[in-house]
Design brief:
This protein is of the alpha+beta class. It has helices spanning 32-36, 51-58, 64-71, and strands at residues 23-28, 43-48, 91-95, 99-103. The protein has a two-stranded antiparallel sheet with strand order 1-2. Strands 3-4 form a two-stranded antiparallel sheet.
C-alpha cells in the first residue's frame, strides 16, 4: 500500500439482492501482514452505490433480478444504511460502456 493509504482494485458491479441496497463490503487493516495473517481489521464497512449508476447497470443483460430488487428497496429502508449513508455513499464516475470508478474516503476509527 502506498504511503498515502490509497488503494485501487477492480471488481464486477455488485448485484442487488432482496432487502439490501447495492453495496460492496470492505475491511481496512493496519498492515499487509495483518490482512494476510489473520489480524483484526481496524475498520469494517460497506460502500453504497448511487441509484442512477445502479439503474444504468441493471438495465443491461444479466441484471434483471437486480433491477427488480433495486425497485423494491431504498437506502432509507436498507438494514445497514438506514441510519445514514452519507459517509458510505461512493462518488461514481464513468459509464456502462467505459466502466465505472467509485471513490470514497474510509477513515480508521
Amino acid at each position: 500500500m502506498p504511503a498515502d493509504g490509497r488503494i485501487t482494485f477492480s471488481t464486477i458491479f455488485p448485484a442487488a439482492y432482496p432487502g439490501r441496497w447495492p453495496h460492496a463490503h470492505l475491511e481496512v487493516y493496519a498492515s499487509l501482514a495483518d490482512a494476510t495473517g489473520g489480524g483484526r481489521p481496524i475498520r469494517t464497512s460497506q460502500l453504497a452505490l448511487p441509484e442512477d449508476v445502479c439503474t444504468a447497470v441493471y438495465a443491461t443483460g444479466g441484471y434483471e433480478a437486480s433491477a427488480g430488487n433495486l425497485a423494491r428497496t431504498s437506502l432509507d429502508r436498507d438494514m445497514v444504511f438506514s441510519d445514514g449513508s452519507d459517509d458510505q455513499l461512493a462518488a461514481v464516475t464513468g459509464s456502462v460502456d467505459a466502466g465505472y470508478r467509485a471513490t470514497s474516503t474510509v477513515r480508521a476509527r
